[in-house]
Amino acid sequence: MIKIISLLIVIVLFTNCGPTCQELIERNFRNKEYNLIILGKDYNTRDIIFYGRDISGKLDTFVEGGFKDIYDVASIGDSIKKQKGKTTVYLVKKDTVLEFPCYCGQSKIE
After folding, report:
1. What are the tens digits of pLDDT across the range 45-67?
2. What is the value of pTM for the model shown?
3. How many separate domains does the chain show?
């Protein structure tokens, strides 16, 4: 009986100890800034990856999860832009600017 109670206490203590989606966005994503012209793209099981140059000519990389929609429509020569403090990513094509808001599940993060 004591083993069962101890096991339940351990489960309760270690459940939900990880950061939530909202916390990860606030801590990691919101403070990033991107402004690059896409020179190449790739993906792994979790993230999409865009290789490019920023406006000063330095090589830069966009590596983020949850933006598969951008990967599908982005082409070499397009630009990826994201302002520091914001959560929306913009894909600038020759004649169009596409907006990709950040989501946690079904909730849009402003």
Report:
1. 888 999 999 888 899 999 888 78
2. 0.76
3. 1
